[in-house]
Specification:
7 strands, Rossmann fold, 8 helices, 7-stranded parallel sheet
């Protein structure tokens, strides 16, 4: 990705940055010129992302974070401020998907864990990110939702509820802080070819064909495409965009 002039000297936090979409996002922000706080629960994969950024000539630091824990999130934002003095961008990407199971068989434990990480985690991130952005009168946040944050899917009740919640939370935050120069948007991707999905479809080739068949564009998305969208939403090119839900699904919801 080409460097983005307005990202130089700026600082970004990316959650779930140890692999997949989050790792691609961390690399994209670094390549655009931002210093990056790489946040993840997995210290090994998070450190790998930091090394990849360093090898590309960027600056990054790893913080182990469970986004469902307020103390962890507060420490993550504090690391950005202590290390580089500010926070300008946040890509709140961390999330999980529960196993496919009928709603009536869903356990309270799975429900709570999914909502805590996917929805409460986004709220906690913004709770601690926004005050730092208010200090210098501007900032941009991108929250990770999903195509099923706009429609539904069978046997994914907790995930669907959490991702619908992220869309609503994003709109609420955008309205509250637009006057303060802070923009808040969400991305709703369809199936993205992450390493985790690759491992799954390698063992189940018929599932890949079924997935691709859902998308008029004829393929799955890539983490780099989602990352590019996140960087763009944080850039001055998107300066008049807030409260928006960007669908990246190869045309699936247009059908």
């Amino acid at each position: 990705m080409r460097e983005v002039p307005e990202f130089h000297g700026k600082v970004a936090v990316v959650t779930g940055a140890g692999s997949g979409i989050g790792r691609a996002g961390a690399l994209a922000f670094a390549c655009a010129g931002a210093k990056v706080v790489v946040a993840d629960t997995n210290a090994r994969s998070g450190a790998e992302t930091v090394h990849l950024i360093a090898d590309a000539g960027g600056a990054a630091v790893f913080v182990r974070v469970d986004v469902a824990r307020a103390a962890d999130v507060e420490a993550m934002v504090g690391t950005a401020v202590r290390t580089w003095g500010r926070l300008d961008f946040a890509y709140n990407n961390a999330g999980i998907a529960e196993p496919r199971i009928p709603l009536t068989d869903l356990t309270e434990e799975v429900w709570d864990q999914t909502i805590d990480i996917n929805l409460k985690g986004v709220w906690l991130c913004m709770k601690y990110e926004i005050p730092q952005m208010l200090r210098h009168g501007r900032g941009a946040i991108v929250n990770m939702s999903s195509a099923v944050g706009l429609v539904a899917a069978r046997q994914q009740a907790a995930y669907v509820a959490s991702k619908h919640g992220v869309v609503g939370l994003t709109k609420a935050a955008a309205l509250e802080y637009a006057h303060a120069g802070i923009r808040v948007n969400a991305i709703c991707p369809g199936a993205i070819r992450t390493p985790a999905l690759d491992r799954f479809i390698t063992d189940n080739p018929q599932i890949e064909a079924r997935l691709v068949g859902r998308y008029p564009i004829g393929r799955l998305g890539t983490p780099e495409e989602v990352a590019a969208a996140a960087v763009w939403l944080c850039s001055d090119a998107a300066a008049f965009i807030t409260g928006h839900t960007l669908v990246m699904d190869g045309g699936a919801l247009a059908q």
